[in-house]
Specification:
The structure is a homodimer. Chain A folds into two domains: about 1-265, Nitrilase/N-carbamoyl-D-aminoacid amidohydrolase, CATH 3.60.110.10; about 290-465, Rossmann fold. Helix content of chain A is about 40%, strand content about 15%. The first copy, chain A, is built from 19 helices and 19 strands. The first copy, chain A, has helices spanning about 15-30, 55-70, 125, 165-170, 190-205, 250-255, 265-285, 300-310, 330-340, 350-365, 375-395, 405-410, 430-440, 450-455, 465-470, 475-485, 490-495, 500-510, 515-520, and strands spanning about 1-5, 35-40, 75-85, 95-100, 105-110, 135-140, 140-145, 175-180, 210, 215, 220-225, 225-230, 235-240, 245-250, 290-295, 315-320, 345-350, 395-400, 420-425. In chain A, strands 5-4-3-2-1-14 form a six-stranded mixed beta sheet. In chain A, strand 7 (about 140-145), helix 4 and strand 8 (about 175-180) form a beta-alpha-beta unit. The longest helix of chain A has 22 residues, at about 375-395. The radius of gyration of chain A is 26 Å and the shape is elongated. In chain A, about 55% of the residues are buried. The model of chain A has no long low-confidence stretch (mean pLDDT about 95). Chains A and B meet through helix 2, helix 7, helix 10, helix 11 and helix 17 of A and helix 2, helix 7, helix 10, helix 11 and helix 17 of B.
């Protein structure tokens, strides 16, 4: 038996687009002589469809898509994920289902059992849990059909869950496991996936075919990396990261094993490719082609410019240099040098006149006050306005250039440098920004060295440096990581050797700045805990604030 | 036996503040000769604590608060809700629990069973479900202790759930039901609560004491309205809306019934009081006292000004009039009249020079383009910047003045009139804005009549009217309501008599403007479906877009 994995980039709610992609992949799988072609979890609707699932009409469109695929299941079986109505009144209205289509009909539907509700996941908001498990028989083989999380409770040892669907299915003696997944990228996720897939083949002793999505849905990036594992505990194949691929495997060969094929995996390369994918799909799926961003001469906007140029093509990325009276000379020369290295169009629009006109209008009100954050923010917001005016006039989406460290402590101006439709590097700590820039420059100087080596500064007042108001980024990022990713208490972080006053000050900054993050663009997620839908914090909360 | 209900306004994560409020209420209940005093669900931590619950430290602080209350439970029993650790490894880490404290000790802990995950709720993200139910015995009475949703599956007829905790408890012959709740306000919620509480006493035939929160937590407003219901199917008492209250009831009197005491309930009064509460608590809990907002001469900002003046006192609400060359003469006179009626300080800052300076800077780039949305938005953003500059200089929080109709269809400028730390009327359709203004003016002309009667206009280009680009608000709001609150399909809305093209255009506008709402301030929730945490939509989604 030959099994094709179709690792595709779906588009949420784009039923026609998703259907035609799948139909093309069915043809491709047939040309590869496949007996079965497998698509990912919720393939009809894309992942995560979120509250679209509350519209009955949306579910009916998904069911109509499954019906059309069933018609196409001639001479080949089709496996895919789709939401489906719960046929009984009791329980939630829908199931997250895996369909088995063959001979022009729906042959089998297996509901998902384990519904994740942590981090970015909300599945129990929408779906009822399965209470029945049956293998599918096809061409003399018995298939254990499972949906994503259903293989993540091996031997019922995952404390989150109380049922192990594979343990339920094993008495029916399946020949192999098919798993339709939607497993979002983080820079440690591929490793976690390998471990789980291998733990399954080790426990159950049968091959496992694991189908993932690729491509990005707003902030959620899917890296693909679909897996075939053989009973000898080896990764028989790992499909490419971040690209579509239809590939067919011979079940007997997989059963025999003895082969190990993994993708190369290096943190900075993964993050680089993920962010390029995230930008490309955000624009592509919204039907936009051109970006704009402010280039300050600093490292954050430099990195975003490189990533955008790679995602959209340099001609489609408009860079705008907006110096003020507080900008250093090297800011403009460094930024211009980068624009030229990349081949992006750029403009220089000084903001001094605009700033002065604001100050003129505010003079009667600011009378006898000191220069402070109000004047600093005005500069940042004047830049935001200029960028948005160009964006509105010419249809370029503004890219946000804030990094995770500054977003965490609120070191950014709401409606100023926090503007933008998409936050490209809002899940990269400043130290990771440096690391990724060095990765980009590993062979040639794309980002001018001076941008990487000079001390970071917002340049909103004379001789300002980030370290005037923040600790070193090495310390800051470590404290933030322990608090955000690890969710350690202040006491636990202090015990790791950090100054108590510093730790309490940083954690307080994180918590009192939730209101800023609430109004921020979606952040491309590359870590295990990004700001956004996976981290839900009260704004008026008093905890550590 | 005498039972005190303590309906209090907690503050999320403010353990000390919440504890001292509860200790004061314990004393008050003692002075009312109560045998038991009852606080609401998750009283130690406030509701909803959201991902603070993922911090072990946070849970330990909650448990320490319960321990301190247990010490105070001398001569009186204390009932309250608090998160607690799951003592076994299997299942989620925590339970949402009701505690019964007496004689200086924790006497009983009842976990919550039914964990809502719809709309604003995420309880299954954090909590494991109860699987055991036991009455508490105290002073010869048997008490059925339940948490919020646990009484919302009467006779197991709620299709969302498969267990009815009260059905499980009834064989133990409880004398009355105690329910600790966190039931957020919407303008129909008090009615829903009455129905559920009465359905419980009708089915079980014993008195029910229902304790709610009051006060606001960012966008979620609790109206209080705690209830006592007697077995004869009457509301024995309904506590006041939107205010703290400690009140003691004699169980025997409630048992006898024959009394009916409900709060007056009128949609506009409820919404008015909810929004005033929402503003007051947002400022109070963040430690701010003063607001600022732009007063355009239109009805939305007028309404927000009135509500803010009532919440914070007129002297603490700074109004800023920012006319442009496109502003009509009446805009300034109407706005000034309102400011004078309210007694709020106001400033006039024309934006023409700022706008012209921007246009000067953009001239080389905008060359040969037509005046369009870019120039319109620039005006709105210049105003946003001025307001934020004053906010930053003087520490006033900017209030957003967008209404639900315009937020729905994207008729607003991101980083312009969409600025602000809190959206006050973002859950009121424009037709409800008119209705609330007429309610405010029911006895005297507080809002100048001309503001209410003139046709709505953004005044961003000459002779502009909202109806140039939108249908009448009566039609728009009805279509939006059917789509947003009722989640009807386009076909179902068209069948209600609306033009197909119009319906499809409106629904498309709603869906393609998700990116703007994503970056909006939290919206005070007054309806059953507000924008924000209760409505989670994809941005790159293609559904109806």
């Amino acid at each position: 038996m030959k099994i094709a994995i179709a690792q595709l980039n779906f588009h949420i709610g784009n039923f026609e687009g998703n259907l035609s992609k799948m139909l093309a992949a069915v043809e491709e799988a047939k040309s590869q002589s496949a007996d079965i072609v497998c698509f990912a979890e919720l393939a009809t609707v894309g992942y995560p469809p979120r509250d679209f699932l509350e519209f009955e009409d949306f579910i009916e469109l998904a069911e109509a898509t499954v019906d059309k695929l069933a018609e196409a299941a001639q001479g080949i079986a089709i496996v895919l994920g789709s939401p489906t109505k719960n046929p009984v009144l009791e329980g939630k209205d829908h199931y997250n289902a895996a369909y088995f289509l063959a001979d022009g009909k729906i042959q089998h539907v297996q509901y998902k059992t384990l519904l994740p509700t942590y981090d970015i996941f909300d599945e129990y908001r929408y779906f009822e849990m399965a209470t029945e498990w049956n293998v599918v028989e096809y061409k003399g083989k018995r298939i254990a059909l499972t949906v994503c999380e259903d293989i993540w409770n091996i031997g019922n040892e995952n404390p989150l869950y109380t049922i192990s669907p594979m343990d339920e299915l094993m008495p029916q003696q399946p020949d192999f496991i098919l798993n339709v997944s939607a497993s979002p990228f983080s820079y440690v996720q591929a490793q976690a996936r390998h471990q789980v897939v291998l733990a399954n083949v080790e426990r159950y002793g049968i091959p496992l075919f694991y189908v993932n999505h690729c491509g990005a849905q707003t902030e959620i990036i899917f890296d693909g990396g679909s897996l075939v594992a053989s009973p000898d505990g080896k990764i028989f194949d790992e499909m490419p990261y971040f690209e579509e691929c239809v590939r067919t495997y011979d079940l007997e060969e997989v059963q025999q094993g003895g082969r190990e094929q993994r993708q190369p995996r290096e943190k900075m390369q993964l993050i680089h490719d993920a962010l390029v994918t995230g930008i490309r799909d955000y624009f592509g799926k919204l039907g936009f082609g051109r970006a704009i961003l402010g280039l300050s001469g600093g490292i954050d906007s430099a990195l975003v410019a490189v990533l955008a140029a790679r995602a959209l093509g340099p001609a489609n990325v408009r860079l705008v240099l907006m110096p003020s009276q507080f900008s250093s000379a090297h800011s403009v020369t460094d930024a211009r040098k980068l624009a030229e290295n990349l081949g992006c169009p750029y403009d220089i629009i000084p903001i001094e006149d605009i700033y002065n006109t604001y100050m003129q209008a505010l003079r009667p009100h600011f009378w006898a006050t000191e220069f402070n954050i109000a004047e600093e923010n005005l500069q940042s917001r004047a830049r935001g306005n200029l960028l948005m005016a160009l964006s509105n006039k010419f249809g370029n989406i503004l890219l946000n250039t804030s990094n995770k460290s500054e977003v965490a402590v609120g070191y950014g101006t709401l409606y100023g440098d926090m503007c933008g439709g998409l936050s490209v590097i809002g899940d990269l700590y400043k130290t990771e920004v440096f690391e990724l820039c060095r990765y980009i420059n590993r062979e040639e100087e794309i980002i001018p060295d001076n941008i990487i080596t000079k001390p970071p500064s917002a340049e909103l007042k004379p001789d300002q440096l980030d370290t005037d108001s923040l600790p070193s980024y090495d310390d800051l990022d470590e404290i933030l990581f322990q608090y955000i990713e690890r969710r350690l208490s202040p006491q636990d972080i202090i015990e790791r050797g950090y100054d108590e006053k510093l730790v309490r000050r940083i954690l307080r900054l994180v918590n009192i700045n939730e209101f800023k993050r609430h109004q921020m663009a979606p952040v491309l997620r590359v870590s295990e805990k990004a700001f956004g839908m996976g981290r839900r914090m009260p704004i008026v909360g008093k905890y550590l604030a």
